[in-house]
Input
Amino acid sequence: MKIAVMAGTPIDSKLGESLLNSYGYNDIVLVPISNNPVEQTTFQSLNDSEREKIIVEIIEQLKEKNCEVIFVYCNSLSSVVDFDRLATEHNIKIVTPMQMYRNLGLEYKYLAVMAANSHGLTGVENNLYVSNPSLRVLGLSMLELVKAIEEENRPEEIVKDFNFEVLFNYLEQTKVEAVVLGCTHFPYIKKELEKITNLPIIDVGVFMINSMEK
Output
């Protein structure tokens, strides 16, 4: 199966490729929409029709390359484009993080969400509320964290530099049940975060793989 990994930047495109490789998928086309996180945030701020026109052109190009699935490995990108509708209109399977959050909300009463920017955070929250309107969400927008990961700083250094131990201590005190990594860059530091907290840390990438295989 030929899979296109569409993501915000070259780095999260490669992170998506690595995730797919770990599940045995190797016929992959990388499709970064932008060159860096700031450029991607600017792209997401375009008006809807302009943004969708660009995405539709890419979808048609991917179909010409015989891609069977588009794996949208970017939370904020999938929050500002109606990929569900485009999948139907262009007759191609598209898997996005936002699809996963619609079910995740049923399992919890209070979640913390770490997102790259306000676009991603709003998208995650809105989709969590689809399944559970009474869910409580503590949201964090962390574009500087994305930049640190893009610079390929070591995970342990990032966790120290951002003083995450203090943040997660605060989250534990607020009785948050779990922390959602609402940006596809953030699994890069997941193992280091698990060393400083007992809170479950949720990476929807695994759920995306399961959805793709159905």
Observations:
- The radius of gyration is 17 Å.
- Residues 95 and 211 are 7 Å apart (CA to CA).
- The chain has a mean pLDDT of 94.
- The longest strand covers residues 110-115.
